[in-house]
Design the sequence.
C-alpha cells in the first residue's frame, strides 16, 4: 500500500479493484484506520475501484499540528483524488468519515456521484465534549479513551461474540497518535452542517445502527428529512455497523451503488 506526499504531507492509501471501474472512496471513523473496511473489501473490489485512506492524524498518514478542521479533512480527499487523477467518485464514510462525506457533497457536489453516510450526523456531539476529549488525550494519552471504546462502538452481544475482533479495534485506537486524535476531535468540535445539508444533490443513503449511542437514529432521521430523496436504513448494530453487521451493511451498500 503506497504513501502519497500531498503538499509535503504523507497520506497512506490503497487502490484496489478493476481499472476503469467506478471509484468508491471509503473514509474511516475517528480512532480507526482504513483497516476498518476489511469486511467490505471482498464484496466491493469485484465491482468498484476502491480507494481507502488513513484520515489525517491516523494510521500512517500525516500527523500535523492540531487543530484540524472539517474543510481540511474534506480537502485532503480532493487532493488525494486529484493526485490519482480521479474526477468522479462515490463516497462512503463512517462517523467522522460520514461527516467528511457530507462536506464533500456540499462543496464538491459536481464530482460526487453517490453518497453513503453511516453511523454519523450533521452535528456529532458537542463543542464542550470534543474539546474535553482532545485535552484528555493530549495530557494523558489514549488509554482512557481506548478502554471505553467497546461500549461506544459495539453492542454487548457483539463484544461477547467477537472479543478478539473487538480487542483489535481497541489496540488500534490505543496506538493512535494523541496529537492526531486530538486534532480530529477539534475538527468535530467545530463541524456543524445542519443548516447546509439541504444543498446536497447527490443520491444519498443513510445507514444507522439501532443501538448506536454516539450518532443516534434521531441524528440519522434529521439528515433524512434534510436531504431531498435520501434513503434510510437501520441495522442491528452499534456505532461501527460495517463491522458488527458487515453482511447486511455490504448488501445495502451494493444495492444502493448499483
Sequence:
Amino acid at each position: 500500500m503506497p504513501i502519497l506526499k500531498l503538499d509535503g504531507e504523507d497520506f497512506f492509501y490503497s487502490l484496489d479493484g478493476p481499472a476503469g471501474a467506478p471509484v468508491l472512496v471509503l473514509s474511516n471513523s475517528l480512532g480507526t484506520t482504513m483497516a476498518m473496511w476489511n469486511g467490505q473489501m471482498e464484496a466491493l473490489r469485484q465491482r468498484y475501484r476502491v480507494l481507502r485512506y488513513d484520515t489525517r492524524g491516523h494510521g500512517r498518514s500525516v500527523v500535523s499540528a492540531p487543530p484540524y478542521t472539517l474543510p481540511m479533512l474534506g480537502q485532503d480527499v480532493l487532493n488525494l483524488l486529484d493526485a490519482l487523477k480521479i474526477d468522479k467518485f462515490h463516497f462512503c464514510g463512517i462517523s467522522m468519515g460520514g461527516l467528511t462525506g457530507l462536506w464533500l457533497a456540499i462543496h464538491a457536489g459536481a464530482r460526487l456521484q453517490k453518497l453513503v453516510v453511516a453511523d454519523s450526523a450533521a452535528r456529532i456531539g458537542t463543542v464542550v465534549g470534543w474539546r474535553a476529549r482532545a485535552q484528555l488525550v493530549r495530557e494523558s494519552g489514549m488509554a482512557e479513551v481506548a478502554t471505553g471504546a467497546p461500549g461506544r462502538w459495539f453492542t454487548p452481544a457483539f463484544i461477547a461474540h467477537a472479543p478478539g475482533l473487538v480487542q483489535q479495534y481497541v489496540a488500534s485506537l490505543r496506538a493512535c497518535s494523541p496529537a492526531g486524535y486530538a486534532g480530529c476531535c477539534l475538527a468535530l468540535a467545530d463541524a456543524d452542517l445542519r443548516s447546509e445539508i439541504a444543498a446536497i444533490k447527490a443520491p444519498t443513503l443513510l445507514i444507522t445502527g439501532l443501538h448506536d449511542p454516539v450518532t443516534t437514529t434521531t441524528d440519522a432521521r434529521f439528515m433524512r428529512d434534510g436531504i431531498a430523496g435520501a434513503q434510510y436504513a437501520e441495522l442491528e448494530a452499534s456505532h461501527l455497523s460495517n463491522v458488527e453487521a458487515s453482511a447486511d451493511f455490504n448488501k445495502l451498500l451494493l444495492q444502493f451503488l448499483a
Notes: The mean pLDDT is 97. Residues 39 and 243 are 7 Å apart (CA to CA). The first strand starts at residue 3 and ends at 6.
